[in-house]
Design brief:
Pfam families: ADH_zinc_N. With about 325 residues, this protein is of the alpha/beta class. Helices cover about 30% and strands about 15% of the residues. The chain has two domains: about 160 residues, Medium-chain alcohol dehydrogenases, catalytic domain (Quinone Oxidoreductase, Chain A, domain 1, Alpha-Beta Complex); about 140 residues, Rossmann fold (3-Layer(aba) Sandwich).
Length: about 325
């Protein structure tokens, strides 16, 4: 995830007609992996946050577009998600740039460009968590914590945080979790534990791990008659299974990409909420480091710490 300022911009004529969508040099923007062209039938539909251009131009197996704007010594370099954010400078299509509040602190709101929108929106937009409901969030990484925050914002009465690392529970409490369950503390399957705790199952569950077996557990933890389970975690290498009887009584099993937010619109709205002190962001950050410490960050922090390290790039003029 990256926040940056626009150096140069070349936009299509269609965007010149709407000033708030047009980028100028010096504007603060957040690059978003999910496109929003605002022209295709997906972008115009309220039923999805997908964009046809994102589907047709990105190779999912490598998570990169066919056309890269980077090269080194004449050889093309893949540009992850079409963004390539581990660089001092990058070239990004304007349909992947969300213009944000000019006073927004870049070293904070950069987190909104991926994980916060993904977790928060999965609860609010996709699951449509209801006031007074009971929720379970599986996985308390940054996305899971944002899902907890979304459940609380939607008015959930009880939010059960599920993770195998009990050190994450204190942070989850800050974002609104009311109960904490470590699957390692129980001999029976975790979904059975949750069903017993809630007298039949939770109303909403969100899987924020990216593990197929956890996705199945999340589904089975919901009440059979009306439970809603949302797959938030991502995996290309695993498959899950379900029987018709798991759904026929009234359960709903659905997925969420980027929390159901229309990419550019959602980021702009979430940054606005942060500026109005209606959204927690600072609380996610555990470390601030420079680019030269990237290997230390990855091996020493990312694999063990549940939250985020913000990395600063010193751009050469």
């Amino acid at each position: 995830v990256l926040c940056l300022k626009v150096i140069k911009c070349k936009a299509k004529d269609t965007f010149l007609k709407v000033h708030k969508y047009f980028l100028f040099s010096g504007d603060k923007v957040i690059p978003v992996f999910l496109s929003q062209c605002r022209e295709c039938h997906f972008c115009k539909s309220p039923k999805t946050n997908q964009c046809v251009k994102a589907w047709t131009e990105v190779i999912m197996d490598i998570m990169c577009p066919i056309d890269s704007r980077f090269s080194c010594k004449g050889k093309k370099i893949l540009q992850f998600s079409g963004l390539g954010t581990f660089t001092e400078y990058t070239v990004v299509r304007q349909i992947n740039l969300a213009k944000i509040h000019p006073d927004a602190p870049l070293d904070k709101v950069c987190l909104i460009g991926c994980g916060i929108c993904t977790g928060y929106g999965s609860a609010v937009n996709t699951a449509k968590v209801e006031e007074g409901s009971t929720c379970a969030v599986f996985g308390l990484g940054a996305v899971g914590l944002a899902a907890v925050m979304g459940c609380k914002a939607a008015g959930a009465k009880r939010i059960i945080a599920v993770d195998t690392n009990p050190e994450k529970f204190e942070k989850a409490k800050i974002f609104g979790a009311t109960d904490f369950v470590n699957p390692k503390d129980h001999s029976k399957p975790i979904h059975e534990v949750l069903v017993e705790m809630t007298n039949g199952g939770v109303d909403f569950s969100l899987e924020c791990v990216g593990n197929a077996s956890v996705m199945e557990s999340a589904l089975h933890s919901t009440v059979k008659a009306w439970g809603v389970s949302v797959i938030v975690g991502y995996t290309l290498v695993q498959s899950f299974t379900a029987r018709p009887v798991d759904l026929i009584s009234g359960r709903t099993w659905k997925g969420a990409l980027f929390g159901g937010f229309k990419a550019k619109d959602g980021v702009m709205e979430m940054v606005k909420r942060y500026m109005e002190k209606k959204l927690m962001v600072d609380e996610f950050i555990t470390h601030n480091m420079d680019l030269c410490q990237i290997m230390e960050t990855w091996f020493g922090l990312v694999l063990t710490v549940p939250d985020w390290c913000v990395m600063t790039f010193q751009v050469k003029q």
